[in-house]
Structure formats: C-alpha cells, structure tokens
Design goal:
The chain has 225 residues and is α/β, with parallel strands linked by helices. The protein has a single domain, classed as Aldolase class I (TIM Barrel, Alpha-Beta Barrel), CATH 3.20.20. It contains 11 helices and 9 strands. Strands 3-2-1-9 form a 4-stranded parallel β-sheet, with helices on both faces. The protein has a 3-stranded parallel β-sheet with strand order 6-7-8. A two-stranded parallel sheet has the order 4-5. Strand 1, helix 2 and strand 2 form a beta-alpha-beta unit.
C-alpha cells in the first residue's frame, strides 16, 4: 500500500520540479543513489522497471527508504501493463510511470488511488489520458516529439494540462529554462542527472551535488516566471 496519498505525490512532483530516474540490479547501489538524491533535495524517485527481478530490487529499496529516507516517494517507471502495475502496488509503490498510454492501466491504478503518469506524444493521447484521470502526463521522448516548442503548442489550446517531459532534459540552466518557460509542470531525468560514470566510480557525493544544483535551478527559474 502506498505510504503517501495520490494528491500528495502529484503535488510533490510539481513542488520539487524534478524526478530522478534510475535502475541498477544491485540493491546497495540503488540505495546509495536514492540517498544521494534525497540528500540533494529530491522527494520523488522513479525506479525503472528494467531487467529480470527488478521488482525484487524495488521491494528491498522501498522498505529501506521508509526509515532511511522517510519523505522520499518511491515509484516505478517503464511499467507497460496492468499486471506489472499491480505487482509494484503490492510492493508499496507511490506512483506508476509508463512510456505509453494503456487505458487498462488507469483502471488498476485508480482503484487503488495510485498516481499514474502515462507517456504520450500527441494532443489526442494527452486528452485521452486526462479523460482517464491523469493529472500529470509524461511526454516521451521529450526531444523527439518536439521539445519545449511541443509543450507550448500543446498548452495553447489546452492550458489546464500538466506535462512532464522525459528524454531530452539536461540539468543545465539553459535547458531547464527552455522547458519551464514553455510551461512544463516538472521534468524527469535519468543519466543526465545520474551519470553512469559517477555510479561506477561510487561518487555519490557528486550525484547529491547534481541533484541539489538542479533542484535549486528549477526553484530559481520558477521564481523568475
């Protein structure tokens, strides 16, 4: 069962502005990355459902995070069908992120009041997701669908829509300003925020610094709008 309400999770997405994405098959590595992100100011974390036994890694990390990072809202990403969503919900996920729009996912997540953020690439898909109850819609891959200009084009006829680009987002002031000026609610970042080179070296302090700088940049950019 989710430790946080759906409304609290969605509001934290917007307040924090950035959702770190990460996967590793080693439980201890994931714990160190989660702690670095937490200490850097992130309060949501998307564990990518990738590889065999990924759910077992998530289970161990999520249980650990309850005491080690009590305010961290752990969620599962790259979930494409209801069965896998149900599995992660049994393991206490606080949200589900998908790369595509599968209407059956909405039924499963809504029954348990779990935030579901599906990936969409057209206005029709976005509106369908909103009909299904989605408050935040992922645009994926962000750079391929048109980048910040795509966001502007979507929000022109649909200003109530909240979008989260993933793919094509980097932790630079120029890139983040482009996205937030276009009107995104928040952004998702994987290897640009948590480089594999830093993970391999065990430089979790630098990951913490990357996250802290990104959180501060987004707060500054929002304040300037």
């Amino acid at each position: 069962m989710s430790r946080f309400t759906r409304l609290a999770v969605l509001q934290t997405f917007i307040n924090t502005g950035v959702v770190p994405l990460f996967y590793d098959k080693n439980v201890e590595t994931v714990k160190k990355v989660v702690k670095a992100c937490y200490d850097g100011g992130a309060r949501v974390f998307e564990f990518t459902n990738r590889g065999d036994f990924a759910h077992e890694v998530f289970s161990e990390v999520n249980k650990w995070a309850q005491s080690a990072c009590p305010e961290m809202m752990m969620g599962a990403g790259s979930v494409i069908e209801p069965g896998t969503a149900s599995l992660y919900m049994q393991l206490g996920t606080n949200f589900i992120v998908s790369p595509s729009l599968n209407v059956d996912m909405a039924k499963v997540c809504n029954r348990r009041k779990i935030a579901w953020i599906p990936g969409c690439a057209t206005l029709s898909e976005i509106h369908k997701a909103e009909e299904l109850g989605c408050e935040i819609v992922k645009i994926f891959p962000g750079s391929s669908v048109g980048g910040p200009s795509f966001v502007k084009d979507i929000l022109a006829p649909s200003p109530w829509t909240r979008l989260m680009p993933s793919g094509g987002v980097s932790p630079t002031e120029e890139n983040l300003k482009d996205w937030f000026s276009a009107g995104v609610a928040c952004v998702g970042m994987g290897s640009k925020l948590i480089p594999n080179s830093l993970v391999e070296k065990g430089d979790f302090d630098m990951i913490k610094e990357n996250v802290a700088k990104t959180v501060a940049l987004i707060k500054k950019i929002k304040g300037e709008k």
